[in-house]
Design a protein that fits this description.
The protein has 592 residues and is of the alpha/beta class. Helix content is 43%, strand content 13%. The longest helix has 29 residues. InterPro entries: DhaK_ATP, DhaK_dom, DhaL_dom, DhaL_dom_sf, Dihydroxyacetone_Kinase.
């Protein structure tokens, strides 16, 4: 698998500035110092300023988190390169007041040096306000031996640090308190990332595939650094198990960084972070598996944050972060779990801050209380003139469809996408099952038609399922109206009137009208002649209309995208229309 190397841009050299200009257009509450590439919010009240930054390419981090309740400024370098000291000094000067500032950056050598030097220069200049630097090191993939000198890398857990620290600053706390909570959170963070491959930096030559098609890499950083292990592509459940075990395991002296007790008392915040190119569909599955894993291990999940927080450009990968909250049994903790969660849940408005519930996740599959709607008035009854024949007619129609599956499938393989026969067969079998289980009894026509509508909707699916369900829902309403008008049984007149009303309902939701080479051709032919000709003759009209579709140009449905001349030459009827003919043929007396 080669990394994606196509990008949408004007010029690789201007990409960072172009992106920051777009961010300012999106968020008028922020300002942009283009010369030094600083995104910031001008101070409106005394507070400890929060700054971050680093190389670009991690969007929305860090500039996307500048805003109320988060960062006061973000200093942006080139892609994967630290900003220089002058840039950082400019950022500090724009937002730092008497209460000082805390710079929260990830532990990378360039960032540590440039942000640290800028802080020292600010202090030496005599400018108001102290400035301090906190390096976040939350990567559990880096062993203690590997990080003896440089320490561990900073990853997505950094976002939680400045979110919580900013909330304390908003509450009026001083620099010591804000720095203390940031240090505390940092000490209880564990993150690990995984990638299907490396990312591609705009303006560079495409690289060769880094991994085999069947491989992933565990322990990857966010600057294209190699991971620690290559694994055969596992299921999400297996991968999440491996990743969360590495964060929570306390038996590995090289990588046990977070003081989990693993005794049922641990409480965490889970952060699922998209590294750039994982679909939302996949992220949802990852989030579900991670939450389930923690719950099975008796680790209480107090909050779940899932989305795109810190990327590695277009890396097809994700990271998992756990913030271990203070335990009630933990002696000497300066904070409670409730306090940390209060800071995390505090309001924030910045483009990069994803929606969070502020609540604990539920348990998937737990019993949900059913809300029973109170019935208003007496349920109306409408009985068939012959209960046994009513059920027999439905059974015949269903069996006719099941027997017709091969011919319908063959027709649809030529005229559509090949699933018509199986779709109609599935609906027919589901209706027969409803009869066998006593769900469809033939005692109250209104209820029975409702059962058929629900059944075909659930078991047929696709366009056919929707059309049939709408028709039967309309039929049920028309029959209810007939009962309310005083009818006690379903006479032929009641049936024909209800069918006409149901067709009118169906026409609200489809533009297909005869002749269109769709199921409405035989359906309308059958319904419009039912009141005057009766069931048998109307069925013949339906057959004629269905056969006529062999000669028609498709105006709706999948058949409209097929070569029309080829369809005419092969004399293939529309499978949906043919299915209607098989149904009405069954209703009138077809025997399997």
């Amino acid at each position: 698998m080669a990394p994606q190397h196509k990008h949408l841009l004007n010029n690789p050299a201007t990409l960072v500035v172009d992106s920051l200009k777009g961010l300012v257009n999106n968020n008028p509450n922020i300002k942009f110092d283009e010369g030094q590439r600083v995104i910031y919010t001008p101070p409106t009240k005394p507070r400890v300023a929060l700054l971050s930054g680093g190389g670009s390419g991690h969007e929305p981090a860090h500039a996307g988190f500048v805003g109320q309740g988060l960062l006061d400024a973000a200093v942006c370098g080139n892609i994967f390169a630290s900003p220089n000291v002058a840039q950082v000094r400019r950022g500090v000067s724009l937002v730092t007041g008497e209460k000082g500032a805390l710079i929260v950056v990830m532990n990378y050598t360039g960032d540590a040096l440039h942000f640290g030097l800028a802080a020292e220069q600010h202090k030496a200049s005599g400018a108001p306000g102290d400035v301090r630097v906190l390096l976040v090191q939350d990567d559990v993939a880096v062993s203690r031996e590997q990080g003896t000198i440089v320490g561990r890398r900073g990853l997505a857990g950094t976002i939680l640090v400045y979110k919580i620290a900013s909330a304390l600053s908003d509450a009026g706390s001083d620099l010591d308190a804000v720095e203390d909570v940031a240090k505390y959170v940092t000490s209880r963070l564990g993150t690990i990332g995984v990638g299907l491959d490396h990312c591609h930096v705009p303006g560079t030559q495409p690289g060769d595939a880094h991994l085999k098609e069947s491989q992933i890499e565990l322990g990857m950083g966010i600057h294209n650094e190699n991971g620690t292990h290559k694994l055969e592509l596992p299921t999400i459940a297996e991968l999440v198990d491996t990743m969360l075990f590495k964060i929570t395991n306390t038996n590995d002296p090289e990588r046990s960084y977070v003081p989990f007790k693993n005794d049922g008392s641990d409480e965490v915040v889970l952060l699922v972070n998209n590294l750039g190119a994982i679909s939302e569909l996949e992220i949802g599955g990852i989030t579900g598996e991670a939450t389930k894993w923690l719950q099975k291990k008796n680790i209480k999940v107090r909050r779940v944050l899932s989305g795109t927080y810190m990327t590695s450009l277009n890396m097809p990968g994700f990271s998992l972060t756990l913030l271990l909250l203070p335990s009630k049994s933990e002696s000497g903790s300066p904070y409670s779990s409730a306090q940390i969660l209060e800071y995390l849940d505090a309001p924030a408005s910045a483009p990069g801050w994803a929606w969070t519930s502020g609540k604990e996740p539920g348990v998937v599959g737990e019993k949900v209380e059913e809300v029973v709607a109170e019935k208003k008035g007496k349920e109306v009854d409408l009985a068939p003139t012959d209960q046994k024949e009513f059920i027999s007619a439905i059974q015949r129609a269903c069996k006719a469809l099941i027997l017709a599956e091969p011919e319908l499938t063959e027709q649809d393989q030529i005229a559509g996408d090949g699933d018509a026969g199986l779709t109609l067969e599935a609906g027919a079998k589901a209706v027969l099952k409803a009869i066998d289980t006593g769900k469809l009894k033939g005692e109250n026509i209104i209820e029975d038609i409702g059962v058929i509508a629900e059944t075909v909707e659930e078991d047929m699916g696709g366009t056919s399922g929707a059309l049939y369900s709408i028709f039967f829902a309309g039929l049920g309403k028309a029959l209810r109206d007939a009962a309310n008008a005083g009818n006690k049984q379903t006479t032929p007149q009641v049936w024909s009137g209800a069918a006409e009303s149901a067709l009118t309902t169906l026409y609200k939701y489809t533009r297909a009208r005869p002749p269109s080479r769709t199921l409405v051709d035989p359906l309308e032919a059958f319904i419009t002649s039912l009141s005057s000709k009766g069931l048998n003759a109307s069925a013949e009209d339906a057959k004629t209309a269905a056969e006529k579709t062999k000669e028609l140009v498709a105006k709706a449905g999948r058949g409209a995208y097929v070569n029309q001349e080829d369809l005419k030459k092969r004399e293939v009827p529309d499978p949906g229309a043919w299915g209607i003919w098989r149904i009405v043929d069954g209703l009138r007396g077809f025997e399997a």
